[in-house]
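Exam prep: given the inputs below (a chain plus zinc ion), describe the expected output before reading on.
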Amino acid sequence: MSAIDNTSPYMNYFNGYPEPIRAQVNTLISSGKLIQYFKKKYPSGHQYNSEKALYEYTNTLKQQFLKNAAKLNSVKYEKRKELVLNALGTHTFKRHAHGKKLKAQHHIAVANQLKYAPLEVLKALVVHELAHFKEKDHNKSFYNLCCHMQANYFECELDLRLFMVLCEKGENFYSP
Ligand SMILES: [Zn+2]
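Solution:
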């Protein structure tokens, strides 16, 4: 088993994972086989490249699984550094005063890199942010909800992190 290169900035994406997974990830990245991994597992990318399509895709999932949740106001691809470093996406919940009534607004931001990505990878992020409608924290019921929306959520979340590494290496072949 090869040692994990903890000096690799890429490994920051996998901080929460157990050592055996980190070792596998480290081997995959350092062997230069990440691009083959994606080509084999996900030969083509999703079609939700416009913000209109992204909103419709997200809202359809929301209607399917979180019918009684509040209205989703917007979903946007955004180029923001913290999206990549921390959460890969954000779910902002604001209360705006409209006259005397407080109106809730839900906005989801998706890291710009996911505009051209495998569908399962985009879905993992969308599912994650939608789950924040119900659960603010990353607790057990949060992840149960994620797995309810995407049965192999944990696998796809790991692939989402691997995909961010692919992008940083300049190897995103889903991009035109
Ligand atoms: Zn989260």
